[in-house]
Each structure stands twice: as structure tokens, then as C-alpha cells.
Amino acid sequence: MTSIARKAASDRAPTSSDDDASAGWSRVTARDIAEELGISISTVSRAFTENAVISPRTREKVMRTAERMGYQPNPFARSLITRRSKIAGIVVADITNPFYPEVLANLTKRLQDTGLQTMLFFAGPGRKVDDALPTLLQYSPDVAIVLAATMSSEMVSACREVGTPVVLFNRYVPGSGAAAVCCDNVDGGRQVADALANAHHRRLAYIAGSPDTSTNNDRLLGFTERCRELGLDDPIVEEGGSFTYEAGSAAVKRLLDRRNPPDAVFCANDIIAIGALDAARRELGLSVPKELSVIGFDDISMAAWPSYSLTTVRQPVNAMIEMTIDEARRLLAHPQAEAEEQTVPGRLIRRNSARLEEVS
Amino acid sequence: MTSIARKAASDRAPTSSDDDASAGWSRVTARDIAEELGISISTVSRAFTENAVISPRTREKVMRTAERMGYQPNPFARSLITRRSKIAGIVVADITNPFYPEVLANLTKRLQDTGLQTMLFFAGPGRKVDDALPTLLQYSPDVAIVLAATMSSEMVSACREVGTPVVLFNRYVPGSGAAAVCCDNVDGGRQVADALANAHHRRLAYIAGSPDTSTNNDRLLGFTERCRELGLDDPIVEEGGSFTYEAGSAAVKRLLDRRNPPDAVFCANDIIAIGALDAARRELGLSVPKELSVIGFDDISMAAWPSYSLTTVRQPVNAMIEMTIDEARRLLAHPQAEAEEQTVPGRLIRRNSARLEEVS
DNA sequence: ATGAAAGCGCTAACAA
DNA sequence: TTGTTAGCGCTTTCAT
Q1: Is the domain covering A3-82 a CATH 1.10.260.40 domain?
Q2: Tens digit of pLDDT for each residue in A259-279?
Q3: How far apart are the C-alpha atoms of B189 and B115, rounded to whole Å?
Q4: HSE value, Cβ hemisphere, 13 Å, CA-based, for B10
Q5: Beta bridge partners of A347
Q6: Which of A214, B17, B240, B345 has the least C-beta neighbours within 10 A?
Q7: Do A76 and B76 make contact, defined as CB atoms within 8 angstroms?
Q8: Beta pairing class for A311-314 and B204-208
Q9: Does B101 touch chain A (CB under 8 A)?
Q10: pLDDT for position B13
Q11: Is the fold of A3-82 the same as that of A185-315?
Q12: How far is CA B193 from the centre of its chain?
């Protein structure tokens, strides 16, 4: 059967049966282009391969007919051979924090710029990251990027064993073998302590987010550490339980219900801070920042909204994304390279939710 | 060369050269399982194929060794033959509106429940949906889902021609051949007009979002339509220009700057409404809802925050997601079926940003 | 119920 | 510079 006959046969419309579940129409393949041009399939392939030995003229010819006939190489067939899928698997845990949609969007865009497409997986309540990974690994992505979540060291090893490096974004698991890109959360906590101390706040509090997350712990660590260095009392730590508005709102009420309430609260992230700020103002009738200073972490776009004007530690998202991509590419190029845990400093953005000294 | 030898050869660790760019280690294949068990590759395949003729005992045996050896079928090789990728391509345009991250998350989860993995593409400023589609189509997804964006009819046809049905979420393009799932935006607008009229508001305004979006136009259409039916003046239409906080904030200021300012504004979505509400309260010193009623659309989680307590039309997100999935499956099963444009009614959620009559 | 063989669409040696 | 050949890992007739 000639290929044209084959094509015609498969080109026929699906049967008229309403139950027809045919997968649709046949696509244009390299073979079609080859036949159209009277050249070999390999040559067509070469036209689409960078650095392949092929005369510019033939390549040009191939590209034009490909364009005309609507041919695009089949990435599945290709990756079967090249053993590179050109796919990045992204696992997202917490999409309710507005910080992450933006990261996801920009990360995906930048990945796409470097020729990697994104397969998306959600972890979250009832869906552990570890559970999502077998499915992810089926697609042998060239890299797995995990946003705001951790995974077991065993899973990281499993990934590397099948050749998929893992990059954690905004989390780290020391000794796991996973690369990690984080804002310097410890330093961020310290910056806040410094700023608050300078402005003569003396009763400091910290509203925690999800326990056992490196972001939460490190921000608190730096904050406490610096308070001690400055000879201040340890901050009161109020467990929020999660990185949510409600957590912040409830926690600040408990905090201000104490005999000796704080005059400044540092919150584990912006959403908590906004919840705290709203509750302080509207439910407790406090004036912010006059009676209470509130500081967050992340600098999500809401933080700049006039009604919040939240003082916060800005995470250098774009830099972090670039580092993530660089690390991914590095690990891809050198599979047995050591995974690096990298950190970028954040910067305190002074707005109007905290009474701070003017910076000179 | 025996396959064991082949395997051993490819199993060797990458060379020690630091420049080594090998793609990693070889994975377990069906062949490995077959050899381990002394059966044929076909049988291994059958064990993983639902409704395949295979004895329960063999299947069980295969599954166990697969588990033990860490074998999972390669979806690329599989889809090369089956001509089904088990992939859903999702195109997202506007991730800054908090409505969509949640949709994306839940949609992806539900898709995954039905056995479809998600490939993610971002459109947006400078990246038209139409531009993202060729890449998307390369992966021959079983369905393309477009969130909050439109595409050209030609592109829709191109998709269907290669067997990929398109489902638009929260947009529609009549006559394009794309299926669509929307909240009933016209009806939502009408509900708002009714509620406002009942509460004796007389000077109504609408703050528009992105022009030329069906969501924006239909909400306004229903609102205006119903105002006329009720014998009210046409609402003042203030162009916001986009579905953003800043747009809402700026628009409401212009609106209240008029000689004869409105006593109620209906906003094209919640983010606009929140921007309007903040500006009205904090920049113009108005009391909401006493001096101005503000109503939004979507019911994002922020709308319920105490400081906003936004009255809004709730989109039945989960229902819409189910409909999207159902439509996708239907189109998949019957490739030549007519694409349907479906609509679900929204519901007005009465909170405290609008002065409305009590409902009986 | 199972195996052998063909081939999905492509790339990568190897020849020519 | 190009064509030929041999698969990548899998599913699917067709025999058995």
C-alpha cells in the first residue's frame, strides 16, 4: 500500500455512527513532506534539527513545504529517541496564596522561552507532592520544579535515578539532593527586627504560617535571632496554622487580647498580614500603624493597594525564577552535578502599615 | 547483543567528564518485565490495558513485578500508537484575577481524576492565544481548554481539523465551533439591576472591564436591559479598561466626580469592585453602602473578607468545571458532534457593600 | 490466553 | 550533503 493510499484511508471521515470514538484525523508527518519533495525522511528531520548537517537550500525548501502543509514534528516520537522530553513538570501546592499564580505564570513563560513546555500537577490538601510524582515521572520531564512544597528525600532520589533533576522553589530540604531556590528568609526576618527595633518598638510578635515549612521557620528564626542580638525580648510567637487571611485575622485577635499586647507584629506572609491588619483595624478598632505596626512578607500586588499599603519584605521573584531556570539547565547539562541550594536576599519595602524610622 | 547486555551498557553511569550531557539513566521498559517473567512484551502491554484479554493471574503477576521493578508504561510511546495523548492543553490568559488560579487548580485536579494530564500555556500581554496554539497542538492534546480568553474561529477550525476539540471557559465565540461554558452573565446583570431597583437606587452605574470580552459585555447588557424594563434610566457606563483593582479605583473616582454621581455601581468583576470600594471609602471618604452601593461579579474568596464583605454575583465554579469536563469528554467521544455553548446561572450573594432590601 | 510481527513518527548511526 | 537502516517503547492485528 502506498503511503498516499494509506493516508487517504486514514483521512476518511469517522464513520457516521454516533458512537464513533475515533481519535480524529491524521496529521501531517515527516513522511508526507519527504514524499512531496522527493527527499528522504531523514532530510526532513535534519531540517528541524539545530546543528544538523544539511544544506541551507534544502532546509529552506523543507521549512516552506512544512509550513504550507502544516507539518510540525511530533514531540512524542522525537523524545522517544532523544530521551529528552523538553517538558518541565511543575508541582504546585498552594495556589490560594496570590504569590504563586504569578510565579507559576512567569516561570512557565520563561521555561517556554527556553524551549520547555509545562506539565502541571497540583498537590495540596489530600494530595501529597510525593503522590503526584510517579505520574509526573511517567512523562520523564527534563526537570521537575516544585513550588512551595517539600518532598521526601527518597522521592528526590527516585527522580534523579531516572534522570529528572528536582528544583524546589521557596522551600528546601537539606541533604535531599534537591536543588533549591529561596528568598533569604532568615535575613528577611532580621531586616524586620532591625527596622522595628530602630523605631523603638519593644513588644514584638510573630504570626506563624504553616508549621514545618522552611519559609515560616526561617523567617521566625532570623527575626528572633536578631531580636536577641539587639537585646530585645524574644518575640511572642502566635501560631496561625496556615498562610491564610483567616489565620492572620484570628491570630492578631488572640495577640491583642493578651494582658500585655505587642506593638508590632511580623507576619509569616502578606496574606496573613492583611488578615491581621483588617482585623486590627475593623474588629479591634486599632489604628494602624499608630497603635500597631504590621509587617508582611512576599510583596504580593495587593500589598501595594492603597487601603493596605503594607510594609513587607519583597521577594525578588524574577531573580528567583531566573535562578530556577538556570539551575534546571545546569542540572540538565550535567546530570551528576551537585544540586545547589541558592538564596537571594529580600528587601524591606516601607509603606504605611508600620511605624518605622525614615531611612536616610 | 542480548537485551541484558544492552541494558547493562546503557545502565552504566555517565562518563566522569564534567561536561557530560547525557540524558540520565535508562528506565525500566516493558521488555525488562517481559524478560524477568519469561513472557512476551505483548502480554505485559495487555496487563496495562483495560479490557484486554489476559488471564487475571498473569495480569496480577505482571503488575507485581512492575511495581517491584518500578515500571510504568511510557505514555509517549503509547500515544504514538493509540493516537490519544491523555493530555489536556490549558491556555490561561489572565492569572492576575484571583478567580482563575482557583479554576485552574480545580480544573486540573478534576481532569487528572478523569485520567488527563495538563499541559499549561500562558497567553496574555504580548502572547495571543492563537500564538500559543501551534505549540499546544504539537502535543496533540485530547482537548484544549481556554480560560478567560477568546481565539479566532480559524484557530478553532484548525484545532478540530487535527482532532482537538476546544472548550472555552468563561468566554464564547458564537459560530466558531468552539464549545463554551459560561456563567449566565446576562442574567447576572439582570439580577443586580433588580436588586438595586428594589432598594430604590435610581442613579445606577456600571464600571466596565476589558472591552470586547463577552463577560464584560453580557453583564452590562443584562444590567441595562433590565434597567430599561424597570423604567429606570440607563446606567452610566464608565470604562475601566481592564479587570483590575486600579481600573476600579480610577473609574469610581471619575464617576463620583460627576455633577450627578451614581448611588450604586455594578462592577464587571470583584477585583474592580474592590478597587472601587477602597477608593470610595478611603480616597473619597464615602460610607459604603450608606452613600454608595457597590456590587461585584465572581465571588472570589476576597469578597467574603470582613473589610470588603462584597455583595456580588457568585459564579458556580464547580458546576462550570464539571460542565467543562463533561463537554470535553463528550467531544472526545464524538469528534464530529456539535460543540455546545452552555450557561449556568449565577446567584447574587448579599453581603454588606450594597444597600439592598432584605429577601423574604 | 499468549506470542510474533508490524509499525506509530521520529532520530541517529552509518554508508554512499 | 544525503539516503538507508535500525531502532526508541509501545499497542495491535493475526496466528497459534
Answers
A1: yes
A2: 999 999 999 999 999 999 999
A3: 37
A4: 16
A5: A314
A6: B17
A7: yes
A8: unpaired
A9: yes
A10: 34
A11: no
A12: 27
Reading the block at residue B265, the C-alpha cell is 455601581
User: Which CATH code, of 3.40.50.2300, 3.40.50.300, 1.10.3720.10, 1.20.1290.10, is assigned to B87-183+317-346?
Assistant: 3.40.50.2300
> Which regions of chain A are under pLDDT 50?
1-24
**Domain segments of chain A as ranges:** 3-82, 87-183+317-346, 185-315
Residue A58 approaches strand D within 7 Å at CB: yes
Partner residue opposite A25 with nearest CB, options B161, B281, B306? B161
DSSP-derived secondary structure for A213-279? -HHHHHHHHHHHHHHHHTTPPPPEEEE--SSSHHHHHHHHHHHHTSSS--SEEEESSHHHHHHHHHI
Buried b (16+ CB within 10 A) or exposed e, B27-45: bbbbebbbbbbebeeebbb
Q: What is the CATH number of domain B185-315?
A: 3.40.50.2300
Closest partner residue to A108 among B120, B305, B336, by Cβ?
A: B120
Contact A118 B117 (CB under 8 A): no
pTM listed for this prediction: 0.92
Q: Cβ B139–A117 below 8 Å, yes or no?
A: yes
Residue B122 (CA) to nucleotide D8 (C1'), in angstroms, measures 31
Cell of A116: 520547555
Which residue of B122, B271, B300, B310 is the best one to mutate when testing the A interface, meaning the one whose CB has the most A CBs within 10 A?
B122
DSSP state of B243: S
Residue of A21, A119, A305 with shortest CB distance to B333: A21
